Amino acid sequence: MTSVPNYSSICILRLSAIGDVCHAVSAVQAIQQAHPNAKITWVIGKIEAMLLANLPGVELVVFDKKQGKAALKQLKQTFKGQQFDVLLNMQVALRAGLVARCIPAKVKIGFDWAHSKELHSLFINKRIAPAPQAHVLEGFKGFARAIGVEDYQPSWAMPYTQQDQHVADELLTPEYLANKFLVISPAASKAQRNWLPERYAAIADHAHQQGFKVVLTGGPTELEINLAKNIIQHSQQPILNLVGKTKLKELLCVLKRASLVLAPDTGPAHMAVTVGTPVIGLYAHSNPARTGPYLYQHYVVEVYHKNVLQQTGKTAAQLPWGTRIKGDDLMRQITVADVTAMFDHVVKSESL
Q: pLDDT by residue (tens digit) across 314-346?
C-alpha cells in the first residue's frame, strides 16, 4: 500500500465562480478531515470570498482580478518566505496559471491532460487521474484523491452566522417562514441562459396553487432587477421580491429556508445544494451532467442533449467533455409544461 504524505501545509487555488467554489468546498472539507494537522490556505476571488468568509479552518487569501498585475505582485508579497507542501490548482484558466506561478509549493497538482487548456500545463508539475465525463465536483474529488483522501460522499458545512440567518428571516417575514415556499433565482451570468419571464411567472402561479409561497432572489444588476419586475408583472399571484436585497451569506440562508429552488445554470442553484434544498435546474447551453446541481441532477429539465446532437451531429459523449452549444433562443425550447411536470414530480418525491 502506498503511504500518504503527512502534509503540514496545503494551498487550494480556485478563484471563481460561485457554483465552482461551492463544488470545491466539499473537496476542501474532505481534505480537512483526512489531514487534520495541515494548515489550509485557499486563494480565491473577491466575490467568492464573500460567500466563504470564515470557512472553518481555512485561511482565505483574496485575489482581486480587477487589480491586474498589482494583485499578482501583492500575492507574491503575501507568500514571501513561505513554502507549501502542495498546491492544488483547481482552475485551468490562464489567469489561475499566473496566480499559481506566484504560489511557492514543492508540488503543484493540476488537471489531467484531457482537461488542460490555456497553458495550464506550464504551471503544474503533477496531474490528477483522468476523470472522463465527470461532473465538475467529481473533478475536484480527484484533487483530494491525489493527496491521499479516500473516496467520500460530498457534504458541506457552509459558513454563516446567526446574524446572517436573522437578516434572511426578517426579509422573508413570518408569513413566508410559516409556509412552504419556492425560491426562483431566475438569472444566470449570461442573458441567453435565462428562461422567459412569463414562463417563470406561470410556474410561480402553479406553485401558489399547490400551496407554496414564492420568492424571487438575485443580485443588484440591472438585468436581474428588470427580469424580476417582468416576472412579477406576468404573475397572477403575490411574489416576494428579494432581488438585490441580500448579501451572499444572507442569500444562502434564504435558500436554506426554502422548500424548493428553481434556477437556470447559475451560482445560487449550487448554493442551494450545499444547504440541502432540492433544485430544479433549467439547462440548454451546457451539459447538466457536468454542471448541474450535483445532488439533484435527476431534477434537471434540459434541452442540451437534443440541441448538441442537432448542431454537431454527435452525442455529448462523442464530443469533448464540457462542450457548450450556442443559440440565443435555446431556453425557449423548455416549456411551462416540462417544468410544471418536474415541479409536481419533485414535490411528490421530496414529500414537500
A: 999 999 988 999 999 999 999 999 999 999 999
Specify the CATH number of the domain 9-146: 3.40.50.2000
Measure the CA–CA gap between 272 and 350, rounded to whole angstroms.
15
| Contact in structure between 203 and 184 (CB atoms under 8 Å) | yes
For 141-187, the pLDDT digits (tens) are 999 999 999 999 999 999 999 999 999 999 999 999 999 999 999 99
Would you list the domain boundaries of the chain? 9-146, 162-349
**Residues 268, 293 contacting (CB under 8 angstroms):** no
Name residue 135's amino acid: H
Vertex 48, ends 265 and 284: CA angle to 5°?
A: 10
Neighbours of 196 (CB within 10 A): 18
Cis previous bond, 341, omega within 30: no
Q: Which fold has domain 162-349?
A: Rossmann fold (3.40.50)
CA distance 86 to 108: 6
